[in-house]
Amino acid sequence: MSEQDDRRPVFRDYIDAVGLHGMAGAEAAGLQASEWYALSRITLAGGLTSGELAAGTGLTTGATTRLIDRLERAGYVRRTADPADRRKVVVEAVPDALAGVEAVVGPARRRIAEVLAGYTPEQQELLFDYFRRSAPAFREATEEIRAATHERKARQD
Questions:
Q1: H-helix or E-strand containing 49?
Q2: Facing residues of 61 across strands?
Q3: Cα(116)–Cα(126) distance, rounded to whole angstroms?
Q4: Dihedral of the CA atoms 139, 145, 147, 149 (nearest 10)?
Q5: Cβ(101)–Cβ(29) under 8 Å?
């Protein structure tokens, strides 16, 4: 999408709305944005080690441990032994606690389902292809931003 493209403001508005929704969801659940994101990643993966979570969030291992501690105290996750390697710990979502999260995101899911219902099945396939392909692209872009930020901070020190 070029700078002059008149669709650019529409796309930015969409991205901003998604981000704002994430922040509102986190606040409604009593979580920080990083905790909200981590809980989502843990839930989608069915469980993650702290190292996997640190890599996915860009947090240090110490900050990740504190994040897991906060989520555990809030009742959203639990630590369990990795069945494949008992030396490792897997962080899993607590299913009963997720009902509260589902209630928080329910309005958005209903509204987005209504929007998607207005598209043909073929158009929906195209949209979901975009979602599948853009999520990794956004994660890669996030890593580039983090790397540039670390580089800039290192030069300032």
A1: strand 48-49
A2: none
A3: 11
A4: -150
A5: yes
